[in-house]
Design a protein that fits this description.
This protein is of the alpha/beta class. It is built from three helices and eight strands, in the order αβαββββαβββ.
């Protein structure tokens, strides 16, 4: 992307990202802690988090099935990627919050740790010194 293109206004304005999950309150608390944000709304079947000027909506999905990545059985619709100084250290801090290490890790990339949030959505922790390669 050229610098000129990056300066142009978009056709829409970002509002929020809505994420289906079995337990919105659990997810909201996890992501508020992960991103240094705050839970701004909790109603039946929904919870919202504001972090870094962005809004995340967590919505209860009665028949929710977590992605089975890397298997395509239940597709990975999207995932977050986070830049951190030490992926292994951050991973250890996230385990008590409800995250887990994904069973599949890339043995050829020591700068990446794949984790699962409390609802089983994969996300990546990428070492900051290697972030431009990803």
């Amino acid at each position: 992307m050229t610098e000129d293109h990056a300066q142009r206004p978009g056709l829409v304005k970002w509002m929020a990202l809505t994420i289906d999950c079995p337990e919105p309150n659990v997810m909201a608390q996890f992501y508020a802690t992960l991103l240094g944000g705050k839970v701004t709304r909790r109603i039946a079947g929904e919870a919202n988090v504001e972090a870094a000027g962005r809004l995340l909506n967590f919505r209860a999905a009665p028949d929710y099935k977590p992605p089975t990545w890397p298997s395509p059985e239940v597709p990975l619709h999207s995932h977050f990627e986070y830049v951190v100084e030490d992926p292994d250290a951050v991973a250890q801090q996230l385990l008590p919050l409800g995250a887990s290490l994904a069973q599949h890790q890339d043995p050829d990339d020591p700068h990446l740790v794949v984790m699962l949030d409390p609802a089983g959505h994969p996300f990546c922790l990428i070492r900051s010194s290697a972030a431009r390669r990803h």
